[in-house]
Structure formats: C-alpha cells, structure tokens
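Bumping my old thread because nobody answered last time. Still need a sequence for this structure:
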C-alpha cells in the first residue's frame, strides 16, 4: 500500500543515478549499525566482493553493535579446485580452503575490497568455512540468497571469536 504522499514502502534501499534511474542497493532490514554509530549496508559489500573474487561462493558481512566489520567466507568447490591445481595446493576441499595459501589469496581480495570502502565498512577479520553454505542446511533460500540471521546464529561462536582475539 502507498502512504499519503504516494510512496510505496518496500523495505528496499536505493539511490537515483545522474540519469534518474533507481538502483536498489540493499534491504533496509539488512542494514546494521556498528558500535560507533556508523551504518553498514552488507549486501552491497557482499556483492562487491563476489564481483572481484572469482573463487568465492558466499560472503557474509557481520558487525552489528561491534567496533569493526568481519566476514564469513565460503569458496566455490570447482573454482577453488582449479586454483589449487594452479598453485600446487593439494588435498580435498576442506584441506584446500583451510590452507594458508587459500587464506592469503582471500586476504588479497579482501584488501582490494577494502580500498573502496569507508573505514568503518572495511573487513578487519574473516573466517573461511571448511564447507559451503547450502539450501538443505537452511543457510540459503531456494533462490540462493543468504539467510543472514540463520547463518549468523549458526556460526555465532565463530563470529564472536573475531572480536576476542
């Protein structure tokens, strides 16, 4: 339904470009505020990372009420296997994604991402999960969208560890 001024409130966040086109950039419910009072649009950061890192499967930004932003990362099984073959990293999926070489590779992409973010949006710490997120485990919707609350609840201890070490 529209409000008295004719606006339809969808819960989406967007911007108008110089030509007057509306770009949807995030969902209002996904925004979070850091402990310093700065707002972060996680979906925009997540999609930017997916655009620069060809090995990522899922990337979840986290940091509500914390003094910096962190992330959970999963790597695409096919892409990471090709990367591993090219870089001499051996083993099964779990061994590859938990290797120091894979962490260093992801760090380079995180550093590239951070260059274009405001200081309070920058990813300070991340964890690469040793498995991908799935629909069957309740991590993703049938359309492959991240179920942010379900994932953050499931990995809360891991996320909390980003702020204690």
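Sorry it took so long. Here it is:
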């Amino acid at each position: 339904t529209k409000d008295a001024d004719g606006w339809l409130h969808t819960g989406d966040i967007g911007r108008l470009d110089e030509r007057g086109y509306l770009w949807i950039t995030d969902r209002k419910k996904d925004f979070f505020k850091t402990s310093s009072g700065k707002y972060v649009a996680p979906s925009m950061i997540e999609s930017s990372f997916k655009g620069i890192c060809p090995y990522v499967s899922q990337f979840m930004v986290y940091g509500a009420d914390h003094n910096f932003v962190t992330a959970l990362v999963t790597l695409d099984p096919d892409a990471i296997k090709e990367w591993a073959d090219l870089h001499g990293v051996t083993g099964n999926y779990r061994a590859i994604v938990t290797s120091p070489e894979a962490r260093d590779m992801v760090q380079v992409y995180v550093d590239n991402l951070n260059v274009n973010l405001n200081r309070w949006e920058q990813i300070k710490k991340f964890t690469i999960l040793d498995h991908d997120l799935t629909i069957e485990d309740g991590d993703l919707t049938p359309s492959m969208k991240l179920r942010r609350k379900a994932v953050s609840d499931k990995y809360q201890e891991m996320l909390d560890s980003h702020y204690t070490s």
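The chain has six helices and seven strands. Let me know if any region looks off to you.
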